Amino acid sequence: MTGFQEGALVVALVSPAVVMLAIGRHPAGSRSRWPLLRWAQVAVVAPGAAWLALVVTGARGRVGGFYVTPLVAAAGCGTALLTVAVLEGMSRRRSMSVACGALAAVGVGLTAGGDGAQAVAVVGGLALAAVLTVEGPPGTPRSNRVIPALLAAGGVAACGVGFAAVHARSGRWSLPTTAPLSVGAIMAFLACAALLAAYGTLRLTARRSGTEPARRSGTEPGAVLLAGGLAVGLSAAPLRAGGTELGAAVVILATAAVVAAGVRRGALSLALLALAAAAGPAALAPGSRLLAAAAVIAVAVDVPWAWLAAVPGAVSLVTGVVDDGGGLAFAAAVGVAAVAVLLAHGAVEEGRRERAVALGALPAVLAGAWLVIAPGTWTWTGASLAAYDQGMARAVAAALVVVVARVLAGERRTRPAKGSARSPGSRPSRPGRHGGSPAQLVTSGRSASTPRPRRATRFQRARPFGRVPSRPPTGAGRQRRRRSRPPEA
Amino acid sequence: MGLGAAVGLATMAITSTGDVLAAGVLLGLAAGDLVAGTVGVLAGIAVIGRWGSSSLAALAGGQAVLGAAGWSGPPGMILSSWAAALAVILVWPDRPASSSFSGGHPAGVVACGIFAAALVAGPAVGLETNSVVVLRMVASAVGIGVASAVARACPRPVARVAGLSAAVSAAVLAVLA
After folding, report:
1. What is the ipTM, given to two decimal places?
2. Sequence-ordered alpha helix ranges (H) in A263-351
3. Which residues on chain A are in Cβ contact (under 8 Å) with B100?
4. What distance in Å separates the CA atoms of residue A117 and residue A111, rounded to the nearest whole number?
């Protein structure tokens, strides 16, 4: 490893702990949490960038007592993306510290040992991260923590069983880099990955059922374990003796993925599909890694159209099926097709209730755009998608030119003449970020420099902007409106 | 997003670059319709079954060497190509869809016609530049015209069922033939 890679690994492992300690030492009497939240998110981008540098440079080797591979570095980068998204919904220092601590635990757990994944490090890191995140957001009732706790405990236990099986066969407590594992060990690691994926995506369902305020991010703290769990499964699945088939694992995981897609658990279905592909023929391995990356991005972004990140993985899987031509590959392809149809149907249904992308999901959105446009550059996946890259780059470039030109032409048409009052329809809509509809922004007096007539206010309420539903102003807005209203004659 | 997807699809079809499965997904996004996306992907599977590759460049290159897909090769393969093109034309909606993807943009019918033309008469521009360019332009114009006419004249439920059936037939013929 080069000096740059070694330095990047040190930054990736140490900076989350530094951020966690700094958040804990932040003065408790601060009037506003907003600067602390954004500072914490920016600080977590640093280890994410360090992991990204390791992925891009293809780092593989040892630094002291730590070992890194491109897959592990990608898992670290994904964990950092998820942590930034998880921080979005937090307002307490303790919660932010916990999330950063979980990031540190996963990073150290995946890399500690110096010679491949070590049992104590991996199990200990995942267990610590699970303990830190299982509590959930403040105010979560104890009854809602049972299932997440069981899933996390089951995942960590399955990981331990896997390492025990490795030890029973080879006498070592670490994952080999090339030597084959027993079928039982691989199944245990796949079960670990599946359970941690379920834990990492579980609370999204509770959030969408309306039990949480609409402003908060949909990414729960448990999502921090998603990338690490998938990395364990994707690392172990290829380590099987030549000719060994994992047909049962492929069928079970693909079926579970279809069921998850049917109940609108899109991110979980992508993760399970990735594991099913990893358990299939070797030709499907690149597609499995692309789908795993798509699952991480879907959890971090948490909007209906995030499933588009799975398109490159699906394309790579189909290519792999064509190359392999076997029955297991066909079974995986059927699963891909079913999941794709169900996810697209669910996205169309959910898309009618648009949600804004949280600011904390911006790094994940950028990563998702990179994945969709140029998946062939994700060399750690091993995917060969040169034709896809070339065509999608041209398609996106042409689409951007046309769409931007159309937007500019539309703005020029609707812009009012100088000196006239601004028409309500010309304001761009920004739903959700300030906790209310644009009508509330106007009536609250926050953005208007002069008092608006009541007639204009009623007109703005009758014509909400974009897809933001009109709501009666909150108590604070109602009070501000009462203060700013001129006395009636 | 519908306009962007339509422009992207047209660009990929005209330049014969990209992946045919990704083009199918773009068709679905441009139309704002799940059935259109499914048909697009099935048409892509038909291309893979016939040409052994999901690359649009391979599709164009194969047609440049062996002849246009619509009249060269085994009868089953010719039928598969025409069925795929017909399916793509049939599923285009006659009015914008109501989904959040803002699909069904009127400009998408142009992309739809160009994509369908590329499936049956889209050889790569090589040595015989003039004739190939004329062929592709004529085929694209015919494809756009037929797509517009079908979108206006054919009832949408009938067109969707027919399109889906044609797409499945195309995929089955390409895989089995």
Report:
1. 0.87
2. 266-278, 285-301, 311-324, 327-351
3. 304-305, 348, 351-352, 354, 467
4. 6
